[in-house]
Amino acid sequence: MDTNIMNFSLGGQRFGLLVHQVENIIKAHSGLLLDTGFRATMPLWLAFKQIAVLDQPLPVVSLARKLGLEASVPRDGGRLLLTHSGGLRCALLVDEVYGLVHASNQQLRILPAWLNAGGSRTVWGCYLAPDDSLTILLDPDNIFTASESAAINHLLTRQLEGATR
Amino acid sequence: MSEQKQGEVATLISRLEEEKAAAGAEIAVASEAILRFQLGRETYGIPIDQVKGISRLRPITFVPGTPAYVLGVCNQAGSVIPVISLADLLGGSNHETSRDSRLITIHSDEVSEGDIGMLVDRVQDVIAVPLNIVEAPLLTLERSGNFLRGQHRQPDGKIVLLLDLPALLRLITNRAGG
User: Fold this and answer.
1) What is the pLDDT along chain A (165 residues), one digit of tens a residue?
2) Which among A74, B133, B146, B148 is placed 20 to 30 Å from A144, CA to CA?
3) ipTM of the prediction
4) What pTM was estimated for this model as a whole?
5) How distant, in Å, are the alpha carbons of A59, A71, A77, A160, B29 from that of A35?
6) CA of A119: which chain B residue's CA is closest?
7) Distance from B77 to chain A by nearest Cα, in Å?
């Protein structure tokens, strides 16, 4: 049975999410950057945006920065992959979305758990493409630590409270 | 045969038997086939029977969230293996590669899930190291844990540092996995 992977680039390298983990893909510039008032205490990889097609502010994560990759500036501002992480709806900013790849089980490899520092499972495997290149597969649920999720949730609540005042 | 002659023959036989026993003992000394490789200025060795393959460097795909000594993963004939910078792990930080750089693929069921590739500066050769002349490693050489099981002084005086591969793999997997 095939596994469907949403293929995208970050810092010149290919990454992937399982397609059912991606709710939507939108242009990164289609949103209003919100001022949370907590900019100084927020990590560099995090911002809050009001996306036109959505009815509430959304945490936007620069995936390159979060993963420790060199953050590049995409030609057209990049794309936002709407997903869920640790119970949070969020948008992952990526450079470019290549599209869907159908991977057979023979093309998927599970990477050893010890590769993830600190025991997190941000990376779970890779897809071996017919041209022998490798696409690193990420688990969006493990992108944030529990404390990061709690902090984002807290900021989001404050943001929502501010908006209703 | 005179008693004197008999005595001489007995002495000769006894001496021959002693020499034979000594030669036998020499032959019985176990030796181990060691793959020698270079990392910076040091020469290291690992048992060749723990080596699954040696290859030229292949493209390495970076994996985020791994410790600094994990360079990434590479496609080794359809197998995807993690690649470790041994220089980095053993205390240096040399990630530079050259035409001589090689990937030594090792496997240990005990401590790792599958194969691991170790990036080294140069692979030299395989030598037989008699186990009875393996010296204890100098404490000053143990930079980042008990990863050396000994050292072998070669006839030319150069030292081969013998890596304790299971200990090294345990170090890699425990450190990385937290």
Assistant:
1) 789 999 999 988 999 999 999 999 988 876 777 666 666 667 777 777 777 667 778 888 888 888 888 767 777 778 899 998 878 888 898 999 999 999 999 999 999 888 877 667 889 999 999 999 999 999 998 888 888 888 888 887 877 776 655
2) A74
3) 0.83
4) 0.80
5) 12, 22, 19, 12, 76
6) B177
7) 9
